[in-house]
Structure formats: structure tokens, C-alpha cells
């Protein structure tokens, strides 16, 4: 053993002396302190870099967000190509913008809304179908919506009280789709969205009114548009609940409304005609409506003959008591309301004494009925051939 060994291992058991141990410990402490200082500086530098990155990126993102808000993306120019777009009734600027963006007419709905808000005539945009171009500037799209020449659809008004077969003819003339195609489409009541109480028949559920028809629409789509309108009106007027309160099926209400509409002249007469129906049914009297017989004959005229009255049909209310098995026309809102709320009265009869001016008179007794029928016969003499 040399002096160095003794100095480094004075105990002879491998343990360093206290002096050596102390120096080694001091060196380890200094090394740890140096590492901590280096790590601290690195952490500080990393934190500074992180903050710079965050706030720098945030600034960029924030600027981009503000720029996108103030200057939303927009196309330039008049666009190209062609696309048909429907603007629905009551659509706001944001809804129109979203529709145009969906059809790739404008680049963003926000850009269109800016143009919409600047245009003083914006509220005059009419619902309907428009022939637009793809990738138009919002200002150009706005101008096209205000141009009547851009209207692409066929506008049609379906009068109240028309039969389904008559509506097919009107639609055929307007669209070029044959009446036969509409007739075939009407057979699939489920795809048209008919209410369950309609039992698959469209008669009575093709709601009258003004329609903007899709120039590319099929017969099924057009009929569905009309049935959808009926469903909307039935929902908004709470038809099912009102029928339940009146202890009737909604289908019965629609059938009564169709009779009221077919027989009625002026709107003020409809609740009184409804009352006549209620009174006669309650008394077990046959309705004896010419309109039901003519529906069975699929004809339109003012009077019927004795031969006509013998037609074997459940719609012949001269032969069968009670209501016919279903609607005989497509009634409007006033007739449906009259069916639900007939005017109080004892009338059992009514006759259109002056059909030209839509004058209808009502009677309770047989004598009164004969008197108003005489008035009608005099009108017939004065208007031969009608």
C-alpha cells in the first residue's frame, strides 16, 4: 500500500477520507447548480419563444379573423354557367346568402349579406325560382335577383274549388308535363306526403293558391309542393285538434269544406252553406247537391237532368244520405274554416238565384225554398243557354 492509497482509503475499507469526500461533494453541488442555471436559462428562453409564437400567431390569426369579418371572401365579375335557385317566401338576407353559397353562386353568405344590406330594394326580392350564374360577385347576384327577367319558374294560381283532374290540366298547360303524368304521380300518396287521414287520395289536399313551379320539377315534385302547402296550412290552423273538438275526423272536415267550396259563391255565404249541410245530415235528409252528381259524371255545368240524378255512384247525394265518401274539390282556407265553424241558423235549403253575380239565397221551409227556386228559374229564362 502506498501513501496515495492510504490517503484515499485511510480506513482500508474502500471509504474515502472525510476531506476527499467533502471536496467531491462540493464539486457535485457546483455541477448541479450549473445544470440548474443552464436549465433555467433554457426554460426562460423557451417560454419567451413560446409567448412570442403564441402572441405572434394570435396576432396573425386575429388579423385574419377581422379581415375575414370586414372583407368576407367574394368572387369578382358576373360569373358563368347557369344554375336554378329557389328563393323561398319570407327568406331573410342571410338565408338567401346561404342558399346562394350552397349552389356556388356566391363565394360566401357573409359577402352577400353585406351587398344585401347596402341595397335599398333588397326587401322587394320575390320568392320563386331564379336563373343564376356560378361564381358571381355578391353585387352581381343581388342585381340579378332584382331583375324580373331572371325569374326562371312558372308562376301559376290554382283557384279554390278545382277538382284534382282540373288541376292536372292547368298544370299541364303551364309546365308541358302531361295531365296523365300528374294523374299517375297522384297515385303514390305516400311519396306526396299526404296526411294519414287522406287515405292516399289527393282530392281535397291539393291546396289552392299561387305557386312558383320549379322549371326542372317533375309531376310528383309539383303535386308534393301543393300537398306540402296543405300540410302547412293544416298545421298552422290546428286542423286536427279543431276537428277533434268538433268530434269529427279531419277527413270529414275536408269533405264538408269541399262541398262548401263547390256550392259557394261569395265568402260570406260559406258558413251558411256549411250550416245547411250540418242541418240536413242531422235530420237524416239527403244533401241533394248537384255538384256531387256532376263530380260523379266528371262534368261541369250549371244544372243536371233527371237522367243525371240516376247515376249509380256513392257521390250521388240524391240517392245516398249523408256525406259523400270523400272530397269533391280542393277547398281553400275560408271553406275549411266554414266547415269547422258553421254559422248558427235553421236553414235547410239554398239556391244560387243569380249565378252571374254569385247571389245565393237561403230558406228554412219548403215554401221559402219554392220561392227562391222561382227566382232562379226567372234568371234562367233571362240567360238562355246557361
Question: Based on DSSP secondary structure assignment, what is the total number of beta strands?
Answer: 6
Q: Which class do the helix and strand fractions yield?
A: mainly alpha
- Give the SSE order as H and E letters: HHEHHEHEHHHEHHHHHHEEH
Strand content is 5-15%
Describe the structure.
The chain has 15 helices and six strands. By secondary structure, it is mainly α. The protein has a two-stranded antiparallel sheet with strand order 1-2. Strands 3-4 form a two-stranded antiparallel ribbon. Strand 5 (349-354) and strand 6 form a beta hairpin. Helix 11 packs across helix 12 (270-283). The N and C termini lie far apart (147 Å).
Short description, anyone?
The protein has 386 residues and is mostly helical.
Helices, strands, pairings?
Layout: H1 3-8, H2 18-70, E1 80-87, H3 93-102, H4 109-118, E2 128-134, H5 138-145, E3 154-158, H6 164-175, H7 179-185, H8 189-192, E4 209-213, H9 219-236, H10 239-245, H11 250-263, H12 270-283, H13 290-297, H14 333-340, E5 349-354, E6 359-363, H15 366-382
Antiparallel strand pairs: 1-2, 3-4, 5-6
Helix pairs in contact: 3-4, 4-5, 6-7, 11-12, 11-14, 12-14
Amino acid at each position: 500500500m502506498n501513501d496515495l492509497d492510504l490517503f484515499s482509503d485511510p480506513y482500508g475499507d474502500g471509504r474515502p477520507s472525510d476531506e476527499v469526500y467533502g471536496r467531491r461533494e462540493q464539486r457535485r453541488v457546483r455541477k448541479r447548480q450549473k445544470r440548474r442555471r443552464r436549465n433555467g436559462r433554457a426554460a426562460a428562453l423557451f417560454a419567451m419563444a413560446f409567448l412570442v409564437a403564441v402572441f405572434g400567431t394570435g396576432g396573425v390569426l386575429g388579423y385574419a379573423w377581422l379581415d375575414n369579418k370586414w372583407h368576407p371572401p367574394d368572387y369578382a365579375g358576373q360569373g358563368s354557367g347557369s344554375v336554378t335557385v329557389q328563393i323561398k317566401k319570407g327568406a331573410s338576407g342571410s338565408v338567401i346568402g346561404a342558399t346562394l353559397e350552397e349552389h356556388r353562386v356566391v363565394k360566401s353568405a357573409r359577402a352577400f349579406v353585406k351587398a344585401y344590406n347596402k341595397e335599398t330594394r333588397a326587401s322587394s326580392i320575390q320568392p320563386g325560382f331564379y336563373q343564376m350564374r356560378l361564381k358571381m360577385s355578391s353585387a352581381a347576384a343581388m342585381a340579378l335577383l332584382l331583375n324580373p327577367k331572371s325569374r326562371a319558374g312558372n308562376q301559376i294560381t290554382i283557384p279554390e274549388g278545382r277538382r284534382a283532374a282540373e288541376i292536372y290540366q292547368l298544370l299541364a298547360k303551364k309546365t308541358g308535363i302531361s295531365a296523365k303524368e300528374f294523374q299517375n304521380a297522384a297515385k303514390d300518396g305516400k311519396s306526396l306526403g299526404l296526411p294519414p287521414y287522406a287515405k292516399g287520395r289527393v282530392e281535397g289536399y291539393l291546396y289552392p293558391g299561387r305557386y312558383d313551379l320549379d322549371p326542372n320539377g317533375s309531376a310528383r315534385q309539383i303535386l308534393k309542393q301543393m300537398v306540402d302547402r296543405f300540410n302547412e296550412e293544416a298545421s298552422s290552423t290546428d286542423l286536427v285538434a279543431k276537428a277533434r273538438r268538433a268530434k269529427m275526423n279531419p277527413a270529414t272536415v275536408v269533405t264538408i269544406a269541399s262541398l262548401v267550396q263547390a256550392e259557394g259563391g261569395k265568402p260570406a255565404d260559406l258558413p251558411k252553406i256549411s250550416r245547411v249541410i250540418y242541418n240536413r245530415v242531422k235530420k237524416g235528409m239527403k244533401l241533394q247537391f248537384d255538384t256531387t252528381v256532376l263530380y260523379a259524371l266528371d262534368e261541369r255545368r250549371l244544372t243536371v237532368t233527371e237522367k243525371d240524378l240516376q247515376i249509380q255512384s256513392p257521390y250521388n247525394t240524391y240517392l245516398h244520405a249523408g256525406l259523400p265518401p270523400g272530397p269533391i274539390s280542393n277547398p281553400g282556407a275560408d271553406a275549411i274554416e266554414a266547415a269547422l265553424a258553421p254559422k248558427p241558423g235553421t236553414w235547410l235549403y239554398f239556391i244560387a238565384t243569380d249565378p252571374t253575380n254569385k247571389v245565393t239565397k237561403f230558406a228554412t221551409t219548403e215554401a221559402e225554398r219554392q220561392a227562391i227556386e222561382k227566382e232562379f228559374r226567372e234568371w234562367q229564362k233571362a240567360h238562355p243557354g246557361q
